[in-house]
Amino acid sequence: MSLYVTRVEFAPRMMTREMAAYYLSISLRDLDVLREQKEITPKGRGRRVLYDKADLDRIADKMPERPATRGQRS
């Protein structure tokens, strides 16, 4: 008997709360704050809450740049 495992090599279009926070490299609480401030609007059906990758990319593009700090490469 052979068992096949599907391996995802790309980010899915719709992401759970946990995946969305991981994708943006922020905490779940920070994602919740973005939602409360209406910076991002989740989508989904029923009880399932999902975030659109395009919306997450828009948030990432708006994040400010940070200068390199001592000990970091630029």
Characterization of this structure:
With 74 residues, the protein is mainly alpha-helical. Helix content is 36%, strand content 5%. It has three helices and two strands; from the N terminus they run βααβα. The protein has helices at residues 17-24, 28-36, 53-62, and strands at 14-15, 51-52. The protein has a two-stranded antiparallel ribbon with strand order 1-2. The longest helix has 10 residues, at 53-62.
Order of helices and strands: EHHEH
Strand order in space, largest sheet: 1-2
- Tell me how many strands there are: 2
Low-confidence stretches: none
Give me the number of helical elements. 3
Portion in beta strands: 5-15%
Secondary-structure-derived class: mainly alpha
Mean pLDDT score, rounded?
Answer: 88
Q: Kindly state the percentage of residues in helix.
A: 25-40%
| Rg, Cα atoms, Å | 16 Å
Q: Describe the largest sheet.
A: 2 strands, antiparallel
Tell me, briefly, the overall form. Answer: flat
Termini, distance in Å? 52 Å
List keywords for this structure.
single chain, 74 residues, mainly alpha, two-stranded antiparallel ribbon, 3 helices, 36% helix
